[in-house]
Design goal:
This protein is mostly helical. It contains 16 helices and no strands. The N terminus is likely disordered.
């Protein structure tokens, strides 16, 4: 039976629940990892920023190679499964870590898996979804992914209470939903067949790369500016601890961010199919400026939670939208490559932003770190709105 252009394909739901399970696994660890490094391993904020920046940059940079390979093979599912499997198998390494060096190795291994699966998964989602509802599809997957990011910290906090703050035991438990996500992907997702007439070509040949036009590269530049304005969420965890939230309850901070992110991603994704992309991106930056100013100015735990919630709303407004913009501007035969290139540039920006945040935190304190983030947001907003009189095809729904 033919799928209605306005009905969400089952494969999108499968990818969403795969992301949900893996995010439960990852966030059980990531919501505790900065605390584990600082309290148990004696790491500095700069070390946390370096590890987080290198890890996230690794994930984003690897996406170009997996994206190119998925375009060359004409197959997305195999690489996606491999990437999720690497992520699941990395979880026990955190429980075994006795030094920041092994934590870095585990994070790189984990993010390597994320990098391998990211571009093929996004290209697969695009292949599965009719064009009129792609914004909604990316928003739905992001919402389900973020529900996992909500459940993960809640489980981590519960297990910390039950296991007397035993970080390593929680890390062992985190492997279970990760393995479940791989099983769901293997057995429940069918990849759409490749067109019989399609010829296998090298996606990074010069004549192929010329198909990525100016509109696509503008999306890449917008994504890089947004990433520079938003450093790693690990610093939200450190800010919560600094403001007096107990060690056991700190994971709930990430749960609060994820709750707002999950509730906002799908509605804003659907809105992006009908509303000016420029206005939505500008709204996302304004919300992030508010989050940074709140986090810089107040140290009461309730106000910090409000800033974290605003941070989550910014993510909900912008992340699915940027993916939909990449999908819109990339040729079908180069979707994996396009997502990969987009994430390479964003990966470099993430590394620079996280290193700068860690340096400012150690030298000048948390308020300066968040004020610097607000400054970059203002610069990004100015760049986005430089030519408001012309609404380009790129920035229309």
């Amino acid at each position: 039976m033919k799928t209605s252009p306005y009905r969400m394909p089952p494969g999108v739901w499968v990818l969403g629940f795969v992301s949900l399970l893996m995010d439960i696994s990852s966030e059980m660890i990531h919501s505790l990892l900065p605390l584990f490094m600082v309290t148990a391993l004696g790491a500095s904020a700069l070390t946390v920023g370096l590890i987080e920046g290198l890890a996230e940059a690794t994930a984003l940079i690897v996406k170009i190679f997996s994206g190119v390979l998925s375009d060359y093979l004409g197959k997305r599912k195999g690489l996606t499964v491999f990437g999720y499997a690497l992520g699941a198998l990395s979880k026990p390494l955190f429980a075994l870590a006795q030094s920041t060096g092994l934590v870095l190795g585990a994070r790189l291994f984990d993010r390597l898996g994320k990098g391998i699966r990211g571009a093929p998964r996004d290209a697969l989602l695009t292949d599965l979804t009719p064009a009129p509802i792609r914004g909604a599809a990316f928003g739905l997957r992001q919402s389900l992914d973020t529900v996992g990011a909500l459940i993960g910290p809640l489980l981590a906090a519960l297990l910390m209470l039950l296991l007397a703050n035993d970080f390593r035991a929680v890390f062992w438990f985190a492997a279970i939903p990760g393995l479940a996500s791989v099983a769901l992907l293997v057995f429940c997702l069918r990849e759409p067949p490749r067109a019989p007439s399609a010829k296998r070509e090298n996606p990074i040949r010069r004549d192929n790369l010329r198909k990525l036009n100016a509109s696509y590269w503008r999306v890449v530049s917008i994504g890089a500016i947004f990433t520079l304005a938003r450093f790693s969420e690990a610093f939200l965890v450190l800010r919560a601890l600094q403001c007096g939230i107990s060690l056991t309850l700190v994971p709930l901070v990430m749960a609060a961010m994820s709750l707002v992110y999950a509730l906002s991603a799908w509605p804003f994704g659907k809105l992006s199919d009908r509303m000016s992309h420029r206005r939505l991106l500008a709204l996302g930056l304004i919300v992030l400026i508010a989050a940074d100013l709140v986090l810089a100015s107040y140290e009461h735990w309730g106000i910090v939670l409000a800033g974290v919630a605003l941070w989550g709303m910014h993510m909900g407004i912008t992340q699915g939208l940027l993916s939909a913009m990449v999908a819109k501007t990339a040729p079908a035969e180069l979707r994996g490559t396009a997502f990969g290139l987009f994430n390479v540039v964003s990966g470099i920006a993430m590394l620079l932003a996280s290193l700068a945040a860690g340096f400012l935190w150690d030298r000048l304190g948390a308020p300066t770190t968040f004020l610097a983030g607000a400054f970059f947001c203002v610069m990004a907003l100015i760049a986005l709105m430089r030519h408001p009189e012309t609404e380009t095809e790129l920035l229309r729904p």
